[in-house]
Structure formats: structure tokens, C-alpha cells
Amino acid sequence: MAADLIESVAKILFIFAVNVGVFAPILGWVERKQSAVMQDRIGANRADILGFTAIGLFHSLADAIKLLTKEDFVPANANKFFHTLAPFISLVPAIAAFAIVPFGGRYELFGHEVHLVIADLDVGILYVFALAGLATYGTVLAGWSSRSNWSLLGGLRASAQMLSYEVAMGLSIIGLIMVYGTLKLTEIGAIQEDFFRWGIFLQPLGFIIFMTCAIAENKRIPFDIPEAESELVAGYFTEYSGMKFVMFWMAEFLEMVTISAVVTTLFFGAWHIPFVTDAMLLSWFQFAGPNGAAALAMLVNIAVFFTKVSFFIWLQMTIRWTLPRFRYDQVMRMCWKMLLPLSLINLSITGLVVLLL
User: Fold this and answer.
1) Phi-psi region of 235 (alpha: psi -120 to 50; beta: other; left: phi over 0)
2) Residues 6+ apart with CB under 8 A from 283
3) Average pLDDT of the segment spanning 158-174
């Protein structure tokens, strides 16, 4: 009982530290540097401590100090309660969704089985969709409670976009669920120990639809019409400053991490190395003894999982700095006239193949 409690606390602290302590602060710097490389610029390089710039890493620290010490401004006619609540509703689901994502398999350490997932829910993927739907309320409340025309229009655009793309995104993974026969992300990840059973090979169209819809759900370019700086200033969070603004900012970056983790788990073999089974990995580390081999295999699987996650974060940033913003009518047309019919076709073909086989 005590070992289970320690294991649960350790996993929660690890995921919280990786997301909030590593990815959230460093992704701002990564995005600046990656955009600079793509546009043939130097990028962030001015902030320094005693002359050391650390390739621009101190800009993230400078940003944090600046934003945390800024005035927390609330418009005079705003609804203060919902204006304060909205950033929390946007941020918390982005972190909580990671609770059901497995970042490794099962390992026997000193007679105790370690399972690298915080909550192994039977309806794991539905939990992700439920939290994604909850995040919509954060944007809507932020836009409505600010009593600003720019914010309200941004909130309306966000709600229409997020609710629309949830439909196609949900349908895009049903084919995968039919193939694997489970909603548990841990079981889906375990099945992909066989390289040729990775989701990308079984559901390539489902992956493209899911990835497109997930970027739209995160409201990043080319789907950033809820913010659209040239039209709406900053959209639904125009009237936010200081810590509350940081929370919206963090939510966007953490959603990128969660999207990458879910894509890795569903379509790209989760924590597995191509053509390397768990038994092979353990056999390679037998020189360290049973517990040492299990510990080393666990560390390798965690490293493999987060390497894949980092790749998909890079991919999302590349898309963000490559494509222009779609117009509102284009965003809606893509969802209802392209992605939704494609997801239904993919679902029908998958059902037919499963029935015949």
C-alpha cells in the first residue's frame, strides 16, 4: 500500500515537473529559436547574466519575471469572477489530460510492479476528449466576461472552431479503437510493441485527420482565428495581463505537449523502439541484474517516449511558422466539408475491413 502511494506521488511529481518545469518554460525559447532559424534570423540572444547569454535561454527567465510582476488588470465592467476563473479552466485540462497517457510500460522492481501511467482508465481516450471539451469553456468565458467586443468575437470564434473540430477528431480515432478493440491507452501502447501494428500503418488517414483537428483545437496557426492579432488584437484574452495571461500562454504550450503525447501513444508506437520488443530490451541489460535491467529498460522507454513527443512538438511548430492563417469560412469549410466526410469514409472502410477479416 505504501509502495503504491509512493509510486503514484512520484509519477504525478514527474509528469508535473516535465510539463510545468521543463516543457512550459522552454517551449517559448524553442519557438523563438526555431522561427528564427526558419526565417534566417538569430533569434533571442540579448538577455544575459554577467555577460553569459546561454544561447538565449535567459529570455524565458526574463519573460517570467516581467509577466509575474505586471499589473493584474481587470476591465471596469468585466465579470471579475468569471474573468479570473477562465484562465484556470483553460490551463488545468491541459495538465490533467496527461494523467492517462502512458509514458512507459510495466516493470518489476524489487518485487513491486511499476506501471508508468498516473491513471489507467478503462475509458482513457474518452477522458482526453472530455477535458478537451472542458477547455472550450475557458475561452468562451474569457471572451464573454471581459466585456470587450474583440474578446467576445474571439470567444465566439473559439467556441465554434473547437466544438466543430471535436466532432471530426472524435470520429478519426474510432477506426483505431475498432482495430485495437480497447479504449485504454496503456493497452493500445502495449499492442504497438509489434512495429507493423503501429497506428500510423493501420490508420494513416485517421492520423492526418486527428493531427489536423488537434492543431485546430489548440487554436494555433493556421487555425488561430480566435486570436488573429491583425483583426482582434489577441482575441478572447485581449483584456488579460500578468499571471492570467501567462496561464493562457502556458495552456497553449502544454496542449502541444499533450497532443504530441497522445499522437505518440495512438499512432507511433508509444514508448516502443521499432523492431525491439520489451523482452529484447531486458535481455540487453541482463549484466545489471534483474532489477538493474528493469530500471535501465524503463529509463530507455521513457527517453524513447519523450523523444517522440519532442519530434511532434517540433512538427507543430514547423507547421505554425510555415502556413498562413486560414479565414473563418475556410476553417469551417475544411471541418464540415472535408475532414468530417473523410473521417466517415475512413470509419466505413475500417468497419468493412474489420468485418471481412
Assistant:
1) left
2) none
3) 87
Residues belonging to the chain: 357
| Span 170-188, pLDDT tens digits | 888 888 888 988 888 888 9
Lookup result for grid cell 483537428: 213
Q: Of 37-51, 102-116, 304-318, give the range with the top mean pLDDT.
A: 304-318
CA distances from 158 to 82, 237, 331 (A): 17, 11, 11
Which of 182, 179, 189 has its CA nearest to residue 272? 189
Quick check: 323 and 226 in contact, CB under 8 A?
A: no
Query: Residue 326 — left, alpha, or beta (φ > 0 → left; ψ -120 to 50 → alpha)?
Result: beta
What is the C-alpha separation between 350 and 333, in angstroms, rounded?
Answer: 25
Confidence of residue 267 (pLDDT cuts 50, 70, 90): very high
The half-sphere exposure of 24 on its side-chain side, counting CA atoms within 13 A, is 21
SS3 at position 122: coil
What pTM was computed for the model? 0.87
Asked whether the beta carbons of 185 and 278 are under 8 A apart, the reply is no
Q: Measure the CA–CA gap between 265 and 124, rounded to whole angstroms.
A: 12
Q: For residue 272, what is its C-alpha cell?
A: 516502443
CA dist 179 to 22, 193, 331, 340, 357, Å? 35, 15, 30, 20, 11
**Grid cell of 284 as nine digits:** 540487453
Is residue 76 classed exposed, middle or buried when 0-12, 13-18 and 19+ CB atoms within 10 A define those classes? exposed
What mean pLDDT do residues 295-310 have?
91
Phi, psi of 171 (to 5 degrees): -70, -30
So what's the pLDDT on residue 255?
87
Please state, in angstroms and rounded to a whole number, the distance separating the CA atoms of residues 212 and 201: 18
Average of per-residue pLDDT values in the chain: 85
